[in-house]
Specification:
There is one protein chain. The protein is mainly alpha-helical and 74 residues long. The protein has one domain. It has helices spanning 17-22, 44-52, 57-72. The longest helix has 16 residues, at 57-72.
Length: 74
């Protein structure tokens, strides 16, 4: 179906992103841990390598740091 074929009216309005997100149920999943925004200096080549892996590079950087933290735990 193409966008032009979709009939929007009062009974069937266009969905808003916040409405969709609130409708997602996370049954059986671990709760999402809150994240903190920081400023971090890294070497240019390191940042470019992570960015070259595609979208979600910040999450991957976080996963690498988390793995290092867990591997370093005594």
């Amino acid at each position: 179906m193409k966008d032009k074929d979709i009939l929007l009216n009062v009974g069937h309005p266009e969905a808003e992103l916040t409405h969709i997100v609130r409708g997602i149920v996370r049954k059986g999943l671990k709760p999402i841990t809150p994240k903190t925004s920081i400023s971090l200096r890294v070497d240019c080549d390191v940042l470019e390598w992570f960015k070259a892996q595609g979208t979600g590079y910040q999450s991957r950087m976080n996963a690498v740091l988390k793995a290092f933290k867990e591997a370093s735990a005594i």
